[in-house]
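Hi C.,

You asked whether I'd gotten around to modeling the 674-residue construct. I have! Everything is below, sequence then structure, no commentary in between.
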Amino acid sequence: MLSSSDTKTGIDQSRAIYNLVQGFIGLLSPDGRLLDANQSALDFIGVSLHEIVGTPFWETPWWRSSQDSRSALKNAIRKGASGEATRFEAKVTGKNDEIMDIGFSLTPIFNEAGTVVSLVPEGHDITAIKQAQNALDESETRLRLAYEAAGMGTWDWNLTNDKLQWSARQFELFGLPKTAGPMHVRRALANIHPDDIERVTTANEDSIARNVPFRQEFRVIHPNGDVRWLVGQGCPLNHDENGRPKSMIGVNYDVTERKTLELKLAKSNLELEARVARRTRELEQEMHDRQKAQRELAQFQRLESIGQIAGGVAHDFNNLLAVIGGNLELATMQGSGARITDLLYEALEAVEAGASLNKRLLSFAQKSSLEPVKLSVNNRIQGSRQLLERTLNKNISLVTDLSPHYWEVFADPGELDSAILNLVVNACDAMPSGGKLCLATRNLLIDAEDVKSIPEAKKIEYVLLSVSDTGFGMSPEVKDKAVVPFFTTKAAGDGSGLGLSSVMGFAAQSGGFTTIDSREGHGTTVNIYLPRAVAHADEKVKETSEAGIPFGRGELVLLVEDDDAVLSITRKRMVELGYNFIEAKTAEDAIRLLESNEDISLVFSDLRMPGKMSGFDLAEWVFENRPHIKVLLTSGYYDLGGGVQKDVKVLSKPYSITDLAISLRDILGMQDDR
């Protein structure tokens, strides 16, 4: 028999072991009241056991910040009281408000009669696991989006049983209906062109045998007879103990357009060599065709590579330029010596050169900000007629019906030309057997009835540009999706699906809108409505630009910017320009400040921010709820979104302190001058 001292020693040793347990372990009554907890759990919330013993477990400090976790705990206690063990994931809060993810279990303890007499809660820290899983999920999502954006199909080949796992895009590339689960490699090989199958299988076998990457260009035959060129790239992995790969993963993507251009170029060269001795005139024509094919191939390859990277680097690059340029400007304003000032101005010139380079990159990604000028739509059509005629097939006739008494519009000439060319190319594709293409313009006053039927319209004067074809038209289903980015009815590789959506975005960004009239078998008409140019628009810009740097009058500006570096330089500029300011890092935070502060005169916000709301969404909220407050937005590249229909100015990054001062004064001045 143990003595009382031995028993006490055993209890003390058990308690010491109990307190050594990392994480949470304790004891609850059947109704959920805390009876005991180990020291690690108590240290986490910074309390002693006697302070919380007898408290309902869900009301203890561990659970104070997560209603969902408290609800899950209460449910587990109810189940535990009825004899059911429970496991769930929860969030607990420590004494310094740190949040920890835990894997939690609640186990009932029974007496000899089978009655639940207590509950044992136990929790282990899984924060690192959750963070790793979240990082993995985010990485996989980014990779999937990258594959989708590039039009790539992915595959995973199990070399031990020749089973393939395919992505949805992979089935499209091979022209096969999507199936659930893996399929045998024989099914994929059956679709490869007979002239290419031996080369592809030999290259695969060599890649596996030598344990080197695989790359081949080959043709696949779709069930409808279409032949498409694909590139296949793969890499062996998951090697066994003998070093032989057990699987291979890779991608496929469509290069039919490029291969067609290459074959056309090769054919042109052969015909050129055959005719050079016979007919000089035919030689010149063939040389022209060859050069044209080379230009088309080079253009395709250039857009394919540069377009994929331009949009991704633009925003961060412009933010960096904004910070560098802003600090350099402020440094020049400190009155340094001539030598230092010259160096600062040279650095500012480099910033401007970087901004110019970034803008050229953005033009490939169709994310550049507009530079509108007053222009004639008629003149743009007439000036580009030769280019348009060269774009058309010989069996398509181009006619124009231009209003002789035209109004001018305020638009970006390059974007207008691009919109016209996009519509002409679409019309040409809709008339493979030939037809008639008409470009027409007329002046138009939208009345109240038109505004009711066209939500995007305003009761103002417009210049209407119509592009009509006699092609096969669109069904109602296709028409509804026509302006959705990346939607296309063309075969894979023949179109990006961005033509009509970019035209719609240009019109909206220019203050106008687009409509589509189309029926199957009756052709298509796309109408672009651009507002008539305001007569004094150019003069106002000029007057403001020549007035020097206009300073503020102590107005309160709400700065909304999530980038700390950009926010820092903007603060300094606001101080230099004579404005007061308060700050927010998200649109949601900005709205809370707007609701509680009546002295704000202007909101200066970035377009792209964390959270569910963008700068355009914030501007929309201000227009509806605080119409007396002005809005100025800024962005590293111009996002096309719902907010572009609103009369809100967007200041492109990087901008100078003069640009900022003029923009702020122009917007606030509209209020001061009334």
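If it helps when you're writing up: Residues 280-332 form the longest helix (53 residues).

Thanks,
B.
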